[in-house]
Amino acid sequence: QLKDCLPGLKSDSVGVQRMPGDVGERVALVAARDIREREVVMTIPEKLAVTSVDAETHDVVGPLAAECSELTALTLWLVAERARGAASVHAALLSTLPEATLSPLLWEETELMGLLAGSPVLAEARVRRDAMRQQWSALEPRLRADLNRFPSDIFSERTFYRAFSVVVAHACFLPSANCFALLPLASSMGRTGNNNGCDLDFDGQTNAVVVTAARPYRSGSELLLNDGRPNGELLLATGGLQDGNTSDYLDWPAALLPADKYFMLKSQVLDTLGFGQRENFPVYADRMPIQLLAYLRLSRLADPALLAKVSFEKDVELSQMNEYEILQILMGDCRERLAAYSKSYEEDVKIAQDPDLRPKERLAVKLRLGEKRIINATMEAVRRRLAPIRGIPTKSGTLQDPNSDLKEIFDTIENLPKAPLRLLEGFVSWARGEQDPDWGKKPGQGRGQVRK
């Protein structure tokens, strides 16, 4: 219907198909024919894209939306247009959007505690839920002051929260235009963190949003948008997560010891490299950053004469004692993380096999299993790395030289820039991992890694 009723929308290469999802069936956009790499599969004229400009010029919510962030403005627009039903000029687009998502943002506190205990997503969900509620608290007096314009049965707290979850999940960020947009068809595309999907951006020459295939597609294959967020972010933002997401990782903290007599010296060294006294690094199931190892080595270094050996670009061991200490720290972190969960990995595997799980339960157990796979893989990598230092038997049955080169255990080393990229959080990170001026930042993670 969208393809037929929206003039200028070019999507001849796109079809629709029902596919199994995390919760029942879902409608997926698929290739209607074979598609070549870098071929444009969809063109959406600017006039069909709904942005904060449309919200700010809306006849009902315009003045209020003009004072809000982009995502909040789009939420007010969505509430107002939904209230018009079939009379809305955007009825076709609205009909393709869900009433709400399964984001933990909308879960009850008992559900969060029962399903996400031990997961770092629990604390982040509470922070973002509180921020959303504060946004509503700021809007509510303005809405209640003009009930003729903003009827309480339409502009209610529940309606706002549900609409906000939809906007965060479906608004696409357009880098070239530096804005968010709700787009016909494209807003409903699935996401992939495996870099095997499509790229989306605004083309100033054609004055349209263009979706381009980043790889060849066979007819019938699902068309996905490239999205490099980990599963925890995807669940918070979209109410879903991706199986086999190669971009999935856990933040791993590292910090200097305040009682260290070389604390100031080490702080100065880190500052010149672009690091702070506390940092988070991304740890994946099959790799961890060289920067994490380097940071921990520096933080536990007892001999200042070895400072010259510290490298944030190569996997350079400082001393056997230092290496042993940081690996024991990593092992302890892994054990502590696993102990925080209320159920073991094996118990969660059994739970995931239950066909009668409720949607939230299924999403939560998939998230927990993914997190535990990362932790277990990290523990195994640390054990392998500890083996030659301890001089214990390896799987081959032989003792390795404690001073042997450990590169054979870490399959490949990929050079990193000297400072990690800063991942910007808040509501914008839910939609694209970049900055929304209405929300704060926190230190982020570099993308360079070393294989486990």
UniProtKB/TrEMBL annotation:
InterPro entries: Rubisco_LSMT_subst-bd, Rubisco_LSMT_subst-bd_sf, SET_dom_sf, SETD3_SETD6_MTase. Residues 258-375 form the Rubisco LSMT substrate-binding domain. Residues 443-452 have a biased composition (Gly residues). Keywords: Methyltransferase, S-adenosyl-L-methionine, Transferase. This is Rubisco LSMT substrate-binding domain-containing protein. Residues 433-452 are annotated as: Disordered. SUPFAM superfamilies: RuBisCo LSMT C-terminal, substrate-binding domain, SET domain. It comes from Volvox africanus.
